[in-house]
Amino acid sequence: MIEYKHFINDFKYVEVFNASARAKIALQGAHLFHYERVDEGPLLWLSERSLFEIGRVIRGGVPVCWPWFGKHPTNSELPQHGFARSSVWELVEVKEIDEHTTEVILQLKPSAESLQLWPHKFELLLAITVGNTLTLALTTRNCDAQAFEFTAALHSYFAVENIEKVYVEGLADKSYFDKVTGEERTQQGNLTVSKEVDRIYRKVDYPVTLHDQTRTLRIDAQGSSSAVVWNPWIEKCVAMADMKDDAYKTMLCIEAANAPGDARMLATGEEHTLTSIISRD
Fold first, then answer.
1. With 90 as the cut, is the pLDDT of residue 8 above it?
2. Residue 117 and which of 96, 152, 188, 261 are 20 to 30 A apart at CA?
3. Is residue 257 part of a domain?
4. What's the number of domains the chain is made of?
């Protein structure tokens, strides 16, 4: 079942309940900001300083980066990570698949504001399946008279106990672009985090596995051959108003993506689905 809710400032979200899990999804950004299985703690990290305000992006959960990931490739004045995460989506369908599984489908279409930022007609659907496993499927459909190219990411923030004691398996020997140093490098062995990490991994063979002290998370993907891994570490965390100074210690982003180098081109009428499947062992 779902319940429509809002904060005192009229920031709207829906809460999903079933026999296996619960979730909370903001209509702004189709932003999943909470997911936990029954009798377990939250799987996703959410900043204690997140402001649930209209026009402000939530820090944590799974922001939708679209139709560009990171800075706009030609105009740095345009919004970081596109406009999907700050736009108000429409909830178009809820499917009670069984007592353990609920699917929520949200839709975004062009507006006068979006067309000023990105002059293309599109339909964007995000299907969020809440159950023992969490699945997010982002479908981009080209409704324009001409082809367009886009990049995207499901910017998943995962909660961890201690960032210095986790490791990520599945990226060994993969090339990556290090956004911190501007260098192309190759991953040696499992990934550990002891400094700022901001990387785009290429030709990724999913799944990628996050090993925490007391749990293991498996991140699988479809429609993607790139993965983004991010932790701001000390200095950048302190500089962010919507994160506590030590928040970097308890989060790690591992994102199924169509990042630069894995951009997708769609002809008129074509569609592409980027899917992230998250499970706990």
1. no
2. 261
3. yes
4. 1
